[in-house]
Every structure is written in C-alpha cells, then in structure tokens.
Amino acid sequence: MGKFSIEAFMQLGVSDEINWLKGTVSSIKKTLADADYSALKDDTVRSWSRKLKDVMYEAADILDVCDEMEGEEHGGRSRNSPVALCLPIQGHKIRRQVKALRQKADAILEEGKIFDLTHVRSDEDHNVDATTACHVPIPRTNVVGRVQETRMLVDKLTGKGISGPGMTGQNVEVIAIVGMGGIGKTTLAREIFTNDMIQGKFDKRLWITISKGNNSISLLQQVIQGLGCEHEGIRDSAVLEHIISSEVRRKKVFLVMDDVWEARGVVDIFKKSFVGNAQAGSRILITTRSKQVAQEMQAAIVHEVSKLSSEDSRSLFLQCFLYHSLIPKDHVISCDKVVHMWIAEGFVGADATSELPEVLGMKYYKELVARHLLEPVDEYDGQGHYKMDNLVHTFAKNVVESESLVVEEGEENPEPFDVEEGHIRRSWAAKEKIEWKAPKELHSLRTLIIIGNVIVQASTGRTLSSLSRLRTLHVNKNEHVHILLDSLHHMKHLRYLDLSYTDALALPNDIGEMKFLQYICLQGCKKLVKLPKSIVELHKLRYLNISETKIKSIPEEGFGGLKNMVSLHGFPSQMMESVIAKDWCSLGELKYMSQLMHLALEGLENCASGSMASLAKIDDKKNLASLRLSCTSRLSVNGEVDKETVEEVFDQLCPPPKLQELNIKGFFGARLPRWLIFTNLAELRVLKLDNLVCCNQLPSTLWQLPCLEYLYIKHTLNVKHIGHGFLLQSSIPGPRETDVAATTPTAATSATAATAATTTTTTIGGGSTHNRGPYHRLSGAGSVGSGEEGEIVAESATEDAATTTGSSNAIGFPKLKKLVMYGMMKWKEWEWEDQVEAMPKLENMHISWCLLNQLPPGLASQARSLRILVVDNVKNLISIDGFCSVVQLHVSSNFKLERISDLPKMESLTVSRCPKLNILQRLPALQSMELNDQEMERLPDCLRDLPAKLRHLRITCNLDLLTLISRGKGTPEWEKIKHIQQVNACTDAEDDKTDKRFVFYKRDSDSTETNIEPSPSTSQVGGN
C-alpha cells in the first residue's frame, strides 16, 4: 500500500487483519487442494469445501478493495481526495468484515477436521517396486512446458565443453536430472532420448529403468541387453563388465538410467565399463530424486526440473479442468481465452520462476490436452481450439453443478433458481434469443459467459448491480450488449471483458476506473470506432484485441505506459502531428512494451518511413512468440501507392530469433522483408503469407527452418514456377570460390545481395540461366519468386549464413506437417524430382486455385507421412496417382481430372464437380466415397471399378439423375453401383426445395428405400 494508506490502516488497527486475510487465502487454497480431490467422491466434503470457498472469495474481495486503495495512493491522490477522506470509514468497515469472516473461517475449519484433509498422496509418489526394464521409450506428444529444457539439455549432451567436479578429461560424462517424484523427470529424459539430434549423434543408445533396491548383477545384465547382446545368465560381475567394455569400445554411447535411487552399483558400471572404453563424447543421463546421487555420480551438470506449478498445483489444475466444463459441447473458445479466464479467476498467477501467468496457464492447458481431457477440433487443425469429450464433459459438469448455472439452447428460462443462496459462482447462457432475468441469488457470481442474443435483465425492482463481484464477463455475438455495458461501472472487480462480435458502440468513458481489468477483447465489434482516452489508466491491462473493428487510432498520449501488455491485436499504424512531436507514430508507443508475446499490427501502409517503424523496437521484445504484419489497403492515408516505402517499413519490423508464428498479410511490396531472408528464425513453427499481390519473390530459405510445422501461402499471384530451390540448396555450378562473400551479412551487404538478386538471377531447378552474380551458390539466405518470366529464382547471401542454417545434404522442410498453397492463380509448374528429399513429416496438404497440370513426382515419393490431400480448383490437373500413404483424398472442381489411381492406403475419397473423372483403379483400401455434382447427367462409369468391399457410397446429385437411380435393378445407373455394400443418394437441399429426395440401398439385404414416386413409365424400385 502507499505510505498514507499504511499509516492510516496502522492507526485503525487494520494491518493485522489484512495480513491475516492474505495468509487465510493462501492456507485455504492449500486445504482445498485436499478438499477438491476428496469432493469428487464425497458429497459431504463437497458441501463443506463450498463453504470454505465462500470465505476465500470474500477475503479476495476485501483484498481487492485494499489493492484499489493502494493503487489510488500510488496514483497520486491527495489527502483531500474522496478516497483519502473516506479512509477511516473504509478502514472500520474492513475491520468489521474481517472480524466476521475470521469467525466464520474458524468455525468452518473446525468442522473440517473430521475429514482429516492434511495431505493427499499423489499416485506418482507411491513407491511401486517396478522391475528393471531396458527399452526404447515411446515419445509422448504434447509434452507440457519442457521444450526449452529439452533443447538446452540436448545442446549440452551433443556439444563440447561441459565440465563438472572431477570430470575434466574423461571420455564419458554424466548429466543428472533431479526433482521430486512425479514432476516430469522421466518425461524430460524421454524427450531427450527420442530427439533427432541425439539419435544422429550416438552410435549406441540404451535406456535402463532402475527399481529401488536393484542389485548390480541385474543392472549389468540389463545394460548388456540394451546393447543388443546376450548375457546368457552369467552372474559374474567381472565377466559382465568385460562384455560391456568390449561392446562400447570406440563407440559413442548414450545411456539413460531412469529413476536412480542410489549410486551404489550404478557408479561401478560407469567407472569400470564405460570410462576408458567408450569413445570420447559419450554421455550418461540419469534421473533421480536425490542431489546426493548426482554428486556421487560426479555429474558434470545437475539440472533441477522446475515445478510445472506451485504447491497447490493439483487443486488449481482440477479447478482449471472443471472450469472448462462451463463451455457447452457445441461451442469452442480458443485456448488463450480460456487461460485468460483462469487468470481472471485467480487459478493461475506468476510462479516462483517468474514465468508470465499466460505461459504458466498454457502449461496447464497443454497438460489437459496431454491427458486426453481435451481433444483438438478438426476445423481448427488443432491450432489453439479444443473441446471436452462428451463423457468427460458430463462428469465435470456434474461435479460443478452446485456452483455453476449453464443454460443452453432448448432449455427453459432458469428463473427461479433452484440453488443455495449465494453459491452460484459461474454461469453460462447460450441461446438464440431469450430474456434472462438476473435474480438476487447471483450476487456472488464471478463468471458470466453469454453466447448469442441473450437479453440480460434485472429482476423486478433490482438493477444489474447484483453482478458487482464479476471477475469474468464473456459476451459473444450478442445484439443487446448495451444493457450490460450500462452496468459495467458496477463491476469493480472485473478482470476479463470479452465483447467479441457484438453490437457494442463504445466502451464507457470512465473505464479507466476499473483498475483490475487485465483482458479486453473487442474483436469483430464492427460499430466500434474509437477507444476511450481513459484506457491508458488501466495499468494492469495485459491483453487488448481491437482487430476487425473500425478503430483506426489510439489515444495519443500514455498508451506506451501499459507496460504489462502481453498480447496486442489489431494495433493501428497511425501518423499525425502531435503536441509532443511534430511527427508522431503510434508504432513508437510499442517500444515500452517489453513483455509482449503476441503482436498484430494493422494498416502498416500508413507508416511514413522505415525510421518511424524502427521506433517500435520489435527485435528487442525477447518474449515475442507471434507476430502479424498487415496492410489493410494498397493506398496510404494520402492516397498514394508507394511500394518502396512499405518495403522499408517491413524491413524495420524484424522479430527476435525465438519467434514461433509469423503472419504477413496484404503486403504490396515487390519483395518480402530482408530479415525473412537473412534472419535465422530457428524456432518458427507457423508461417502464413497471404495476399502478396505484387511480390515477385518468395524466400528460398524456408526449407531450412528446422521447426516449421505449418506453411500457408495464399494469393501470391505472380508466381508461375516453383523449382528445386524451394526445397533445398541450389547446386548449380557457379564462379570460383573467391567470388563468394565470406562475411556475415550486415544490412549493407544484405541490401547489396538483394539488389543483385533482383537484377541478376538464377533459375532454381531448371530453366534458363541468367548472369548468376557473386552469391548464387549460397543457401544461407535468399528468396524465390518470379523472375522476368515468372520463374522461381534465388536471392543469395553469404557463406557464413549457409553454414549456419543448412547444407546441401539437408532435408528440406524437415518438420513440416501441413502445407497450404491457395490462390496462386498463375502457378503452372512445380518441379520436384523423385530423388530430392523433402517434407518427410508432411501429414496434410491443400492445393487450391492454380494452373498445375500435374503434381510433382517428388511429392508422391518423398512425403511418406502424407495422410490428407485436398486438391481444389486445379484447373489443368489430369491425374492423381502414386501417393502410397494418403488415407483421405478430397478433390473438387478439377475440371480436367481424369484419373485417380495407385493409392494403396486410401480409405476415404470425396469427389465434387470433376466431370471428366473416368478412371478409379488400384484403390484396395477404399472404405467410403462421396460423389457430389449437381450438373452430372449420368453416374461415371468408373464406379463399376470400385472394390466390392467398399462399405459406403454417398451421392449428391440433381433430381433428374436421382430419379434414374431410383428406377433400380436392370437400369444402366443401377448397374454401376449395385456391387457396393451401401449407397445413399440424395438431392442437395438447396436444389430440391421440397422434401429432400433420397434413395437408400443395402446390398446384403437387397433392399432399397426411396421417397421418389415412380411414374407409370418407370420400373418398380427393387426391394422394400
């Protein structure tokens, strides 16, 4: 608290009460760690824990009041201010409240003693006497919060120069992972063991899991088995040690010893069998709960696994899980918003490692995913959108039913409430249009989530001031949000405000008085044109999203003072004459926001120069994980198009090396930013290039990005040819080595290289060779795009860059999982030969709206993990064949497509508007097929060639063709499909304005059903 506040409270005897409050909240949380767990099985405990939570929530509200007064004091309020003048009154009120709360808490805690809730054992803490095992661990996907630790330890294990007590000069070195039971030591070791760098660095890898009290003979035998040898039952330790020594001699070995309880026996294996025999650079990795074991093993590095959460992590994890059940089954809220709600509720805060709450919360979320409590939503590609399995959702909803109210579509108005007074903490309403009266029972409500046109009204004779304790208000797609906005000033405790896609006209001018607001989302509020000036007073604000609004400016003074900002979306680039400076640019306000993790900039065409853009200091934001750079128009504010200026602006928005997601949209420069060519974005996972209408070059260094998983290239209109330069380093011979620059590229050399590449180009992967220029052989930096005739060409840099980012033997796009090439309207040719290795982990690919006449043979032969292939509006494509791993194929509006063949694993095929398709052959695994075409007059003859074990064929066609099918046995159309196990044919709902017509056929029962009435001239439909 401020000095005056502290003195005043001391005089009033309140400081002790406040200290008690803080301690009480902490103690109750720890007690609830037991209570919440037991409450899953015991209704009595559940009822008791609910009363204990009431105390905790009331204490938190009082602390909010104290915190607000502290903020007022720091804000410079005078002693004569209303806050200062009412301080004695407020102090006496707080004292009375705390005294009453203390009595209530003592009584509840006394009552809870019968439950003996002092400690809940973790299943992982039980000492299970597992047998020693030697095996290769199965890598776990979605490992929570261990990426940085894994990378750091892999670097140390595969690098040089690690040292520790007594280790200098030894050929085998030990690294120890230390931590309490169940904290994730084995998970971390597993990630290291299966890491690609580890697999490529060592001749032998073996994994030993050691049980408590294990004897040295069995350990030696297990090591021998792990080395691929037989111990033949020998129990002489000297002989066993000799076998190991012989097997590891002059080999680089990586040995993992998991769950080492004591060094005895393990040290002997290390000293007698490995040291002096294994090749220098060999490593032993141990996991243990004891630092003493690590010391006895003389570990060169002791890595302590950080806690994923604080002491009460189990209670918080359970609360986070149960909170997610508020979201109805048919609705999806992005994971970042759910995490923000958790933070607003107080479930997640900064931990001892000083991690941002958003980072810690995402670890909780990923843990829910890893435990299969949440599953990805297909239409979002698993990118930040998950939902609960129906069974899990039902369970969680039942657990929280006493504290939550969920009103979904089809349910009656919940008035009156059948709940205990004051216990409803969280409420959800999802309706198309209802009127919902908020009764007095909701005075303790902390979370209100509304989707759709729910009209929230107060009960008769009351106002919505009853919602004064709200922490979270989430209202989406609502046309009556003004009712809530009018009552917003009552919600003094509000932390989270989401009004996405509502008809909100403006935020209250006094929103700056809502001092606890941390998250504001206004995305899609089309009527919103400006932010209130007082928003700069929300110093706790961490998230602001104004994308898809009409907001084109920010408050001119003070916005940069929001230094706690972590995520900022839709931030407008704005130039104006200011009272502070003649030329003021909104981007300059960003330089103070050092904690930014997510940043989306709009209207960059309005930035006057590169020097103005440089004021944002993007490269200094070390936490930045995602960056979106967007131009919303090809015209600047003065109505001019200036390609060179927009190129300079983008050049100055260089992100830090640890960026994970990059989105460039609407860029109308002729070349992409130089930093995309020259910067080593080694951690980039997602890259989206959208609507690059004037760009003649795409980076040829993308293939080297080691972590790139998702690549989206859309509406890049000038590309005609993609050669091998897109997939690997160019190997075209060039001038002598002395012509190659050997210095690290600076801005000047980068500019020189870029300029040279624009005028002197090399066609990658074939085509004519122009004057190559001095840098053409180097792969460290470059770009590919259309040259004079639309070829993909290379823009090269220096040898240093080449050696740091890749080599000619590297595999292109080593981690890429999904590739989307959409709207490249001039793209005619993709060159990729069979022998060129690239995209080994590609799982999902979409090619749409281009002029390709064939898919490259290298795609079929090298992308061996490809399971889903979507080909849409590829106008000149004739055939799709040879994809040995594809399981699902979707083809649509490919008007020249004639053949689909040689897809041995394809189980599902969807064909829409491909009128020339006449060959379907060698598809042995096909289980289901959809055929959609409103214009086809006859079924394609190739349906006869479908395998007889095809389970299901679904046909959507016009009514005329459906009528022909309905005529049944002996008719030409029926003969094409009669061998298929089940056929479901119907009209499109839009085409058939009456009841939807259908024909349903089952081969096994030889039965047909239809609602098409046969005409006198038609045959009777077979079956029933």
The rounded distance between the terminal residues' Cα atoms is 82 Å
Count up the domains. Answer: 8
CATH class of the largest domain: Alpha Beta
What's the main sheet like? 23 strands, mixed
Residue windows where pLDDT falls under 50 for at least 5 positions: 1-13, 73-86, 118-145, 164-169, 308-312, 412-422, 731-808, 1018-1024
CATH superfamily of the largest domain: P-loop containing nucleotide triphosphate hydrolases
- Number of helices, where a helix is a run of at least 4 consecutive DSSP H or I residues: 25
Strands, total number:
40
Structural class of the secondary elements? alpha/beta
In short:
With 1024 residues, this protein is of the alpha/beta class. 27% of the residues lie in helices and 18% in strands.
Overall description:
Helix content is 27%, strand content 18%. It has 1024 residues and is α/β, with parallel strands linked by helices. It folds into 8 domains: 3-120, no CATH class; 125-304, 3-Layer(aba) Sandwich (Rossmann fold); 317-398, Orthogonal Bundle (Arc Repressor Mutant, subunit A), CATH 1.10.10; 421-548, Alpha-Beta Horseshoe (Leucine-rich repeat, LRR (right-handed beta-alpha superhelix)), CATH 3.80.10; 552-669; 683-831, no CATH class; 837-914, no CATH class; 927-1024, no CATH class. The strands form 7 sheets. The chain has a 23-stranded mixed beta sheet. The chain has a 6-stranded mixed beta sheet with strand order 1-3-4-5-2-6, with helices on both faces.
